[in-house]
Amino acid sequence: MREVKKQQKRWLVRAMCAVLAAGSVLCGCSGQGMTKTIQLPDTENEEKGIPGIIINRIQEYVYDGHSEDNLWLGWGETGSDMVCMLRYGEKGYTYRKIDVNTKETISKVFVDDRMIFNIKIAPGGRYISYEAEVAEGAGSELILFAAEEEKHIVLREWDECLQGSSYVWSDDGTKLFSWQNGDDPAFLPDNNWYVACYDMDTLKQDDKGELSVEKKEFLMKGNGYAWRSVLPNADGSEVYVREEYESFSDSKSGEYTNESAKIKMKQENMAVSENAEEQADGMKETQSWILRPGSQEKKNVAEYAKSPIYPVKYTKKGLYYRSDEGKLCLAEHVEDKPSVTELFSVSNIETCICGNGDHIFFIEWTDDMRTLQISGVRMEGTEPTAKQVLYKASCESADYLVTADDSAIVLQTDAYLGDDRNSFRITELGY
Fold first, then answer.
1. Do 241 and 230 form a contact (C-beta atoms < 8 A)?
2. N or C: which end of the chain has fewer CB within 10 A?
């Protein structure tokens, strides 16, 4: 879950009306769903005549449960009005798909009885990726669970202690990307690390009923500890990758008592290097690449920022990133001759952007961090429309995504009800 600080400036709500609510019981547990319709006026930028974002439908699913239920919620395929729920119970993890309109459970399948972590539900809800220990005190493995086939695939196994891994799905839920983190001082820095792509479009079953998917790896040459960003485009056909060394070095300044200890650690992790000290002196501040899993092409990207940046989303329009000064910027043509447009300040604000790059949503907390507020801006080229407040809700934490067809933003929120009870909510805001 992501949390952001309270924004200094507040924006007015244009209009919200018409609420229809209904409740029901689901599988012996308290379940609740509702459909809301919001009609906002056709707000336009007076000077340019550019329409903003219009929220025309809201679908919600609410589930009340214990805080230790450890729920992971997701939204089904576009137009399905289906909630996907991975829930931990006495016998392990169970995955349900629930129709929001009828409140009926479409499917229910057991996933795993081990404690699992690094869980990612693919957009559309067809797959779940997660890590689990093979046995107590033994190594770990990366698992893909195919919900429709009700089968598991072991994507990776490892015994050695390494930097932890991160995972991200493409917006259309067809490709899973994994890579080693580079920011844990408890482990030696990676000088060779990998970006792996697991392609669900290659899913097949052999004569024994075993499933498999195709894996492609990109070898990345690192230069020690670094912040790593891996951002696939909407269908995973291209991936923007960035390593930041300069910004990371400040946070590592207290990890070593002297320079000799620092160089010694580098030497231990550079078995193929004849002069680790020389490499450390020549370390680059940043590196960026464009990867294409289909052709396994890897291309270096020219540097376009004068200070550390925080990549947000790689879209058809280009790369959106936040500058060190808190500005949201758009870097176009990053693969060839990057050109940067500074858009607006996003200090202390989270952003969520569609794969096309023309809808930008701002996630802010107001009322002393008690109210979630969603605002939106539609882009016309590199020109933004006026910012509009689209939705408000009382909650304690939130996560969010834009659907692959760029028709809705989906929110996952939860709120504490007291007596060790939480309210978990999935909301689809159609536009």
1. yes
2. N
Q: Name the strand (E) or helix (H) holding 287.
A: strand 286-292
Q: What is the pTM of this model?
A: 0.80
Residue 211's identity, in one-letter code, is L
State pLDDT tens for residues 236-284.
999 999 998 865 544 444 444 344 444 444 555 554 344 334 444 444 6
Q: Can you name the residues that pair with 92 across neighbouring β-strands? A: 89
Do 321 and 308 touch, CB atoms closer than 8 A?
no
- Report the b/e string of 91-123 with b at 16+ CB within 10 A: eebbbbbbbbeebeeeeeeebbeeebebbbbbb
d(CA 196, CA 251): 28
Q: Which residues of 155-184 are buried (b: 16+ CB within 10 A; e: fewer)?
A: beeeeeeebebebbbbbbbbbbbbbbbbbe
Q: 208: left (phi > 0), else alpha (psi -120 to 50), else beta? A: alpha
Q: Are 308 and 287 in contact (CB under 8 A)?
A: no
Q: What is the DSSP letter of 189?
A: P
